[in-house]
Amino acid sequence: MPQTLIETPIGPIAIRWDGETITGVDLDPPSGGFDAGPETMPSPIRQQLSAYFEQASAGFDLPVALVGTDFQQRVWAELRRIPAGETRTYGEIARQLGSVPRAVGQACRANPCPVVVPCHRVVAVNGLGGFSGDTTGRKLEVKRWLLDHEACKPRPRSE
Is the pTM here over 0.70, yes or no? Predict the structure, then answer.
């Protein structure tokens, strides 16, 4: 599958695709190993990423190929239903799926397409929670930026 590096307001990210289907987004890409330039990325992917980083309400309707367990697939499907500008807690999603918050967090961590499959819209009941496996540092700053970009409003405590 082709892979390219693109510059974004959250720093460089790597995008992988197969045809017009996005297969991966790497928020911490390696310094090399890219076999394609950004201009070779299919235009729907390039256009939607560009539009999102300009205006979050643009959203994504890209086809994605996500490899994961049945439970992860169910969580990722729920993530795609969260509109830009809104958040859900790990607990809310867990209740919808008949699971527990920690399992939802693990599925969010395993998300192969962060940003496009918006795991950043899932927060802890008492704060941001983590992002892509980090609870501090750069990735958490990326989560903050994405939520600010989308003008997400804090959710009232319900748990």
Answer: yes
The answer to whether position 154 is within a domain reads no
For residue 93, tell me if it sits in a domain.
yes
Q: CA-CA distance, 29 to 21, in Å (whole number)?
A: 19
Q: What is the pLDDT of residues 67-109, one digit of tens each?
A: 999 999 999 999 999 999 999 999 999 999 999 999 999 999 9
The whole-angstrom separation of Cα 39 and Cα 60 is: 19
Q: Are residues 87 and 131 in the same domain?
A: yes
| Residue range of the domain that includes 47 | 3-58
Neighbour order of strands in the sheet with 13-18: 3-6, 13-18, 21-26
Side chain identity at residue 133, one-letter code:
G
Q: Which of 4, 14, 40 is nearest to 116 (CA)?
A: 14
User: In 8-149, which ranges are E strands?
Assistant: 13-18, 21-26, 88-89, 122-123
CA distance 127 to 129: 6
Do 77 and 139 lie in one domain? The reply is yes
What's the token pair of residue 37?
């330039």
Identify the residue whose tokens are 């790990």.
90
Please indicate whether residue 108 is annotated as part of the active site: no
Q: Which of 108, 113, 119, 152 is catalytic?
A: 119
One domain, residues 31 and 102: no
